[in-house]
Amino acid sequence: MKINGVQYRSVQVDPDDNWTILIFDQTRLPFSLNVLRLTGCVQVAHAITSMQVRGAPLIGAVAAYGLALALRVDAGDDAMERDAATLAATRPTAINLRWAIDRMLAKLRPLKPEDRVAAAYAEAALICDEDVAQNEAIGRHGFSLIRDIAKTNDKNRRINILTHCNAGWIATVDWGTALAPIYMAHDAGYDVHVWVDETRPRNQGAALTAWELGSHGVPHTVITDNAGGHLMQHGMVDLVIVGTDRVAAQGDVANKIGTYLKALAAQDNKVPFWVALPSTTIDWTVMDGIREIPIEERAASEVTGVTGQTKDGRIETVRITPHDSAAANPAFDVTPARLVTGLITERGRCAASAAGLHSLFPERQSQ
Predict the structure, then answer these.
(1) Does residue 79 surpass a pLDDT of 90?
(2) Residues 337 and 226 reside in one and the same domain
(3) Is 154 a catalytic residue?
(4) What's the CATH number where 334 sits?
(5) How many beta carbons lie within 10 A of that of residue 16, not counting itself?
(6) Its function (predicted)?
(7) Are residues 205 and 330 in the same domain?
């Protein structure tokens, strides 16, 4: 996707140093566009844990490169397994991270240590290219939903789409998941407008989704997390599209905290609620998302404080709660499949159910 007319990917090998990995520091957005140079496994693990890089598909791709960087130091069996475990443990909810590490190990374990570095970089690059292709396909399948709404709308009426958190191109290698259909509709000339949930406590919507939509020229409005239901009640939302960090084999969806409440409001107001995901986000081993998907608990300081830009341009974090008040910070919630209109994958759309998923992925029937 583009920033001020310049094409970017969210992770790439440094063209001036074929061993170094470049990412955007997402903790600095939207106030500054900082590029981080990652040269080792420890740096990659920190970038994922601190959310300098985030988004389920993207952290899988970056972790793959992290293992490649680790192998440059020690490509032996013990070191490779240790570094893979370190990377896999950085965040527990997003299944893409574990998937990418497992794929890398499956490729690398049979090889001699001296052959592993080149193979690791090649496999990580392949993971990135596949992610781009998958997300572009998700965009096409989701775009048809928007096109169908346009056909039934009053002539020239704007199509209003609500999204939660950030599932755009900076959460993937390119295109994004939930935002890919929106970009395609906008680029095709459709009058789309996005309601952007702020997404407390880290404000990924207000900071990241609003920034990337604005950079691409897509009309949008930032709203408080609690405004979505009100907008739906008054006919101001045509469609909800969100991303996900893990989908259970029967359609339950884990996504950023607050997604469940949006799904409840959507069902009550008969607003379609769609979830966009690459197949790497499906966990075929989980049959009950509410009971089985681990929910990351992040630091209380993300709730008790808020970071923003002062009038003189400084980035500051201020406390917003009493000093003696405790704070809990579950990073995700699980939306039951019964509240999900359907899933948008690279192979097409389906019902949020085991039967629906198997219709697109028949090779998984036995699992």
Answers:
(1) yes
(2) yes
(3) no
(4) 3.40.50.10470
(5) 7
(6) Catalyzes the interconversion of methylthioribose-1-phosphate (MTR-1-P) into methylthioribulose-1-phosphate (MTRu-1-P).
(7) yes
Which one is catalytic: 245, 252, 283, 333?
Answer: 245
Residue 188 and residue 125 in one domain:
no
Domain boundary among the residues 108, 130, 152 is at 130
Q: In total, how many domains does the chain have?
A: 2
Task: Give the range of the structural domain holding residue 98, as residue numbers without chain letter.
Answer: 2-130
Residues marked as binding for substrate? Answer: 54-56, 91, 204, 255-256
Binding-site positions read: 54-56, 91, 204, 255-256
User: For residue 162, which of 261, 74, 251 has the smallest C-alpha distance?
Assistant: 261
Instruction: For residue 124, give the CATH number of its domain.
Output: 1.20.120.420
Q: How far is residue 323's CA from residue 308's CA, in Å, rounded to a whole number? A: 20
* DSSP secondary structure of 213-278: HHHHT--EEEE-GGGHHHHHHTT--SEEEE--SEEETTS-EEEETTHHHHHHHHHHTT--EEEE--
pTM tops 0.70, yes or no: yes
Q: Please, are residues 26 and 170 in contact by the beta-carbon 8 Å criterion?
A: yes
In the chain, the largest separation of any two C-alpha atoms, in whole Å, equals 64
Tokens of 148: 């169908």
Q: Could you say which of 105, 130, 155 is where a domain stops?
A: 130
Strand partners, 344: 276, 349
What is the Cα–Cα distance from 178 to 166, expressed in whole angstroms? 8
